[in-house]
Every structure is written in C-alpha cells, then in structure tokens.
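Schema walk-through. Below, the input block comes first and the output block second. Nothing else is stored per chain. Lengths vary across the set, and this one has 144 residues.
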Amino acid sequence: MEFEYSNEYARAFGDLAERLFRVRFFPKEAVEGWRWLVNEVKNGYDDVPPEYDNDLDTTRDPLDTFLVDDTLNNFPDHETFKQFIQQLDREFKELTQVHPKWEQDRRKWWNNRVPKYAGREYVEFFHSDELKKIGLSITLIDKQ
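--- output ---
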C-alpha cells in the first residue's frame, strides 16, 4: 500500500526531522526505513547484534518522536502514518521475542526484543546454550 500525504504534512514532517535529527527526511522514508528493518528480521537478520541495535536506533527510535508530535497530530495525514507504523510494529513483535535479562524500557519496547530468525553472524554472537537457559531460541537462516 502506498503512503500518500499532502505537501504541508511533508514540510512539517521534514522540518521536525531536520530540527531534531539534523537530517531532512519525510514520512514515506521513515515508513520505508522501518519496513526495511522488519523485512530484514523476517528474512533472518544477517549481522551482529550491535549492528541490529544500531539499525533499531536509526529506524525505529525516531518514529516515536513523530508519532506523538503535537504539530504532526494536527494533520489528517498523520493518522495514516501512525497506522503504517502500528502495522509494522505488530509484524516486528511477531518476528521477535523479548529478551528476559535485558532491562525493560517501556518507552522503547523494541530495544528489548531479539529476532526469532537470524543469520549465522547474529546467532554465533550468542552462545546457543546461553539462549536456551533464558528460554530463547533463534532459528538460523543460512543465506549461503
């Protein structure tokens, strides 16, 4: 489904992004960034956990700021943006599992989740025996 929005909404979104993150980007780019990472997780995240954390920091973290911004919430287009993010959040939750030993940060729930499917680099970073002890299992997706 394509995300269409007004020029006024795009301008307000871009202004906020530039002011807060020093990079001008727009709603479609924000949605596509999160969609990309959700798809990476779906297909077996194929990098080390510190890179996964970085990907979450750069794709999902900023979305929280946009979701609650008072100015953006005045635009009817923002409801559609929120729906896209909520759908991707649901998909992400289905594809991940809560790591019980990581401190719970209720505001950034996505940082406490581990992919259910991952490539060799991600899986080998953890010791599978350690994962089993805490009730986690990551299915290896070998992309070779």
